[in-house]
Amino acid sequence: MAKESKELNWRWVWLGAAVVLVLVFLSVRSLTRERLQVRAVQVTRQSLESTVSTNGRVEPEEDIQVHSPLATTVKTVKVQAGDKVAAGKLLLVMDDLQARARVATAESGVKTAQAALDAITHNGTLEQQQASAADMTRTRIDRDQAQRDLNALTKLNATGAASTSEVAAAKQRLDSASASVDASQVSAKNRYSPAEVARAEAALSDAEANLAAAHDIESKTTVRAPIAGTVYNLNVKATDFVEEGKLLLQMADLHHERVRAYFDEPEIGILAVDQPILIKWDAKPGKVWHGRIERVPVTVTEHGTRNVGEVLVKVDDDDGQLLPDTNVTVTVTTASENNALTIPREALHVENGKPFVFRVIGDQLHRTPVTYGSMNLNQVAILSGLNTGDWVATGATSGQPLQENMPIKVIP
Fold it and tell me: Is the dihedral of CA 112, 117, 120, 123 positive or negative?
């Protein structure tokens, strides 16, 4: 019995020794195995702005484009590209011989149409009126003569000196003469129908419109500045022959410009009127202009290989240095938060639609669910899940994926 008790005690001794060895092994392994080197940042509060950048093109609010009104020759050019001109300044003069010929032809057409309308409203020309009067006089004479003949034959018929058929024939001649008088009176008063009068009035309106157009073309052969501004594009010189419709010059007030910006389709939904805009032009490094959204997209169009919405941006501090048709970069601030709890965007992870971060607690990583709000290219606002002063991992120096409970070593 004593021997069996002694053997049992030795078994417990050996079992305890084995447990101790295992614990020692695990402790040594835990202390000696290589830890993942990670970078980490502390959660802080700061102002956060959500921004979106894209390209745009500068254009004048009022772009004055002068086109040739007809095919002709440029006689003189009084300005050069880049000149600042006052309203009414003579810019160029074109040969107006053809334009003056058009005016003369149009004036003749108006006179002809007016004469035709006058003739219709006065029931014919003077010659036609005189002919109508003579015809009426003749028909009245014929009627009166037929009446006298009928009276005479009626008396003769009563004495038997004229037959009844003669009286009937005389009466028929009187009826015909009376009808001719009536027809002459109607023709003298109502020679033309209402439709003919309307056509004559329309013809006069067309002739007057042609004259106005001819005068307009003639006036456009002498070009004056309609506003005070800058001639920023000049396409002709003296003695050039230009086709009808050719663009001759462009001018604008360069202190009143806007930017047409092109935002990709997924970004359109966050845009709104009056959102602030920063404008940069590579030709002016360090220079920034400020503006605001004046009109949001109303449709999506193709712009090169992109589907974009066009946004009109009002330039608030336009100083005349932005040139028309230049390409600029615009950045819109879509949201702004003060004292937001923020972390770098690379510290935020999303898996199956659920956002989380890896908090650094001691020397291990702990996966922590969070909710987030607005973000920009660098920072994201955390709404819940973290507190000020917490540390979160932004990534391993080796590029290895981060994992829950992974032993780590934070490096500066």
Answer: negative
